Amino acid sequence: MKRLIALLLVAASAAGLAACNTVAGAGQDLSAGGHAITNSAEQAK
Description:
This protein is mostly helical and 45 residues long. It has one helix at 2-44. The longest helix is centred in the middle third of the chain and has 43 residues, at 2-44.
């Protein structure tokens, strides 16, 4: 039983770390898109 609980904790930790990386990457992509829009607006002035 302890082995099953330990396995579930490891799996949950791995899934949590993968989700953090995904969210961080999405945030960086949105930030880069925002910078591109800002730069385009500045050039159009």
